[in-house]
Amino acid sequence: MSGHREDELSDLWRRVRADLAAALPASTVELWVDPIRVVALRGETLLLSAPRAVRAWVERRYRQVLTDALRAHSDAVREIEFVDQAAPEEGAAAVVPESLPRDPRQTFERFVIGPGNRVAHGAALAVAELPGEAYNPLFLHGPPGLGKSHLMAAIHDYMVRNHPGLTVHHTTAERFTSEFVTALRLSGPEAFKARYRNLDALLIDDVEFLEGKHQTAEEFFHTFNALHAAGKQIVLSSDRPPAALSGLAERLRDRFAWGLTVEIEPPDLRTRIAVLWRLASDRHGEVPEPAVLSEIAARVPGNVRVLEGAMTRVLALSSMLREPLSLSIVRRALDAEGAPAAGTREKPTLEEIQDAVCSVYGVGREELLSPRRSPRIAHARQLAMYLARELTGLSLSEIARPFDRNHTTVLHAIRAVDDRLEPGSEAMAAVHKVCTSLGTVLPAAVADAPTGAPSPSDPQAANP
């Protein structure tokens, strides 16, 4: 550009920036407009350059705004075009953190949709198609093994394939914590901030891991704020809803609930059959008879991981005996002497029971063990004590100690739950959900009873 033309274009850009600063949030202008540089004017097209991530985001979200602002100040400029031109910001950009490995099996195309996950699937696909525009943040929650990680991985896969200009990072809260601690020891917090706050989309699994890690949670709070203010997509998953993450600061829990919060529920019979069909076709090369799949699904009313364990056992027995898949093979595989139903565990730990109950009732562990006697927390506490007695074989006193109660309180809780275990009751539905989450057999009192009650809410039983 000649000096005169360069001055004219620089002055034009200053006026355009002033208009954008008046119309857009200051953080948006700082992150997405300020890195743009004017290169030249070619005919009626203004050539611009910007770092790769900024360029992709601006072209998709702010191209028309920029064009309109330029046309308002110059009759000579009708269009804009980004060109490849190295900028200092690109050379100095922080290294993008390494994402979790992409699993070709965890895509939207391979996700089995059912009543319990349909809304979560739709929301995940929406944010993958329109990052930062659909639901921000998107918060998925539910017990382990129901497909949260699959949806997170599917979002990552879709964004990488369909939005190659965006910087997407998929990790776990545990890895986030490890990277933060390492950065504090080695490169310092500023390098860590630069790596995470320049992302276009951040996907974090198992955010409950941040509970009790106050320094890491504080850093994530500021990272969340920076990304959200810039319109960048955030997707989170947890075993509990935001309000039940009592080990996190309230201001962080509030932010988790700013966008859309979706619960994923255990698969119904039809969905379990569809999952088994997919597993069998992938591993066996041929689809078993519908009666075979129905038999497995009916015998294993658990999560996807439990179903996968059941199918693995059935396929292994079929292969070893060199017999085709049949009802006989299924029954022999799942009724093996001395073994629990495929994928199940006979005796979960008391701590695992407590965590599963917290997830189902949407309460935190601290609340479960506290002296609080609100109906919801009391119901959760009673159910945890009841299932500890039914599933672990521990004595009343052994159950009471981790709850900081005495054995008479545990006995009262067991009786209270027994009184509420009517067919179709809320308590019955809660027991099914907890046992599904744990991948364990149902207590005898509820094994054959129908469910049909809503998720636990506003219980009214006596409080231990």
Walkthrough of the structure:
- The protein has 464 residues and is α/β, with parallel strands linked by helices.
- The protein contains 21 helices and 8 strands.
- The strands form 2 sheets. It has a 5-stranded parallel beta sheet with strand order 5-6-7-4-8, with helices on both faces. A 3-stranded mixed beta sheet has the order 1-2-3, covered by helices on one side.
- A hairpin with a 2-residue loop joins strand 1 and strand 2.
- Helix 12 (269-284) packs across helix 14 (304-321) and helix 19 (396-403) packs across helix 20.
- The longest helix is centred in the first third of the chain and has 21 residues, at 3-23.
- The protein is globular and about 85 Å long.
- The N and C termini lie far apart (80 Å).
Key structural traits:
disordered C terminus; five-stranded parallel β-sheet; 464 residues; alpha/beta
Shape: globular
Low-confidence stretches: 86-94, 337-344, 450-464
> Could you give a short account of the major beta sheet?
5 strands, parallel
The total of helices stands at 21
Could you tell me the strand content as a percent range? 5-15%
Helix percent band: 40-55%
Q: How much is the average pLDDT?
A: 82
| Estimated radius of gyration | 27 Å
Spatial strand arrangement across the major sheet: 5-6-7-4-8
Number of strands: 8
Helix and strand content put the structural class at alpha/beta
Order of helices and strands: HHEEHHEHHEHEHHEHEHEHHHHHHHHHH
Q: How far apart lie the N and C ends?
A: 80 Å
